[in-house]
Amino acid sequence: MKQQLIQLDINNQIYEVPINNRDLLVDVIRKKVGLTGTKKGCGEGDCGACTVLVDGAPILSCLTLAVSCQGKKITTIEGLADDQGNLHPIQQSFLDHGAVQCGFCTPGMILTTKAMLDKNPQPDDRSIKRGIAGNICRCTGYKKIVEAIGASAKKITAGGIK
Fold this sequence. Notes:
The protein is of the alpha+beta class. It is built from 5 helices and 5 strands.
């Protein structure tokens, strides 16, 4: 299969990567760009572990062709921390509330949360549960995850953080 060179804007950095037309975004991010925070879980779009943000919207990178993301802004879990390496309030809240166990689902869960809070900065527990419904965690009963999301929403709103 013939390869082509494309440019992807990932975490505000341009990467030129050779791809085949059928290369999935998750594989390009992990194997060709080297950002391994994005996880490849089920490979069928059911678990949410591969969630990244494309132009601010959560997408399943295991179902998305890399070529379709040219000219768009891709954010992975590595792109949420600030320039000094300080964790985003959502990331910190997951740590502070014990919402991270094995950590496999966490990047997708956090990026889904980021998109949700961008649209609804003050969700109630029901809205949080609906917002993360496409992300599966096999380690928890979700209680600590919901608490972490609620706490991060308050911190973000109070601090005027994006």
